[in-house]
Amino acid sequence: xxxxxxxxxxxxxxxxxxxxxxxxxxxxxxxxxxxxxxxxxxxxxxxxxxxxxxxxxxxxxxxxxxxxxxxxxxxxxxxxxxxxxxxxxxxxxxxxxxxxxxxxxxxxxxxxxxxxxxxxxxxxxxxxxxxxxxxxxxxxxxxxxxxxxxxxxxxxxxxxxxxxxxxxxxxxxxxxxxxxxxxxxxxxxxxxxxxxxxxxxxxxxxxxxxxxxxxxxxxxxxxxxxxxxxxxxxxxxxxxxxxxxxxxxxxxxxxxxxxxxxxxxxxxxxxxxxxxxxxxxxxxxxxxxxxxxxxxxxxxxxxxxxxxxxxxxxxxxxxxxxxxxxxxxxxxxxxxxxxxxxxxxxxxxxxxxxxxxxxxxxxxxxxxxxxxxxxxxxxxxxxxxxxxxxxxxxxxxxxxxxxxxxxxxxxxxxxxxxxxxxxxxxxxxxxxxxxxxxxxxxxxxxxxxxxxxxxxxxxxxxxxxxxxxxxxxxxxxxxxxxxxxxxxxxxxxxxxxxxxxxxxx
Length: 505
Ligand SMILES: Nc1ncnc2c1ncn2[C@@H]1O[C@H](COP(=O)(O)OP(=O)(O)OP(=O)(O)O)[C@@H](O)[C@H]1O
Ligand SMILES: [Mn+2]
What we know:
Keywords: ATP-binding, Disulfide bond, Glycoprotein, Golgi apparatus, Manganese, Metal-binding, Nucleotide-binding. The chain contains 20 helices and 13 strands. It has helices at 4-38, 40-43, 65-69, 76-81, 84-87, 102-123, 133-138, 140-147, 159-170, 223-235, 251-256, 262-265, 333-336, 340-345, 355-369, 410-415, 420-430, 436-444, 455-478, 481-484; strands at residues 173-179, 186-191, 196-201, 244-250, 268-270, 276-281, 289-293, 298-305, 315-319, 376-380, 389-390, 418-419, 485-486. It starts with a helix and ends in a 19-residue tail after the last strand. It binds adenosine-5'-triphosphate and manganese (II) ion (MN).
């Protein structure tokens, strides 16, 4: 009934359909599956700080895991952290290098818990969990606090860090307190395991760019900048930002229902849009109360793990020599005097040791994020003048992606000094194999609020990194190499081919 010609045409049609399906459907699927099996993000769900889901995605868009899983190359983040320069240089811990002794930390927590329990019995006011030394001893907070040392806030690789980040994102809140603050509402959260953290709510979406005419000192605080700054600081191997994770807080269930603090309860209200909101009174730079609202209950924000209390780990608050004027008219001396650094260089403690170099590290970090709000900084008193600077409060970074604020680099450009270790790491991150934007994009995928930064902000990091290297190059043209690059690593890494335009002059 079918002629030979018809049979031939049917076979031709079927084989064409099969070829098309094979080329455009089956092969790409197989290819993706094979890549996924190599993808480190999906090797083990526990590796990621938080199980990611599209509902955890603050922007409402699906989580962008697809883009990464399609990348056939191996993880750049892993490659960076296994680079010899990131693996070496682990200085041995000597007695006194640790910030806290375990015995003191446990004794202090025990004492505080006893006081809290007494107060609870007396007033019935506190809702916090009853102290259990077993829970505290097993907590990731204690592990974090005991790991802080003379070199950094946390070690390069230790499983407790991922677990702490997960705790920040998911652990039940046991108590919340509105922190008195400058101009932005923030909450101190306490957890069942006696950990504490600072919650900064979303005030601005990731997509909004700070408008041209907004001064840095009235700029919003951005929760996503706090999260991104933690990742950037870790990638730069500074490890001077306390661990931060993104989280969606249910304002009704996790704060309003739970608190028995009448003052805090009284600050809740329902907005005209039917969203749950709370307000706080600001202390300065504003005249009225200010509020944050959930959608309708959920509010996303950054959660920063608290460092040990000041009673057991004192910190010194220091004015940044390159701080800005917080008025419209005035200018600071560093803005008008090109020789300002000469003065700083001769002023203790900037005249010796690493304090000045640490300020320059901080300026490099702030330039990358675009943070102009570094008026003060803090250091642990125990580690003295050479101790690292704690990179607290990064919420005013990542405001403008289309503008690079070169004045933030003033400590580097005016002093023409940089630690060799910092320069080498910047150099690694400028190479295509380790590109900073790619590594940041990958690192931020681990956060529950992924995508934390928009693409233009990620790409701005590469551009700014080039600007830093250019500034160093300019210094090297004007000064002796040894005056610019301060050798804090020795010749241990001379075997590495850094391949940089700056270093290979
Ligand atoms: N993770 C943390 N651990 C310990 N202390 C912290 C932490 N985060 C913030 N703090 C303390 O709280 C202070 C204020 O925090 P931060 O600067 O981030 O908030 P802010 O809203 O800018 O407040 P302010 O207007 O008071 O500066 C910090 O200077 C620091 O002393
Ligand atoms: Mn601040």
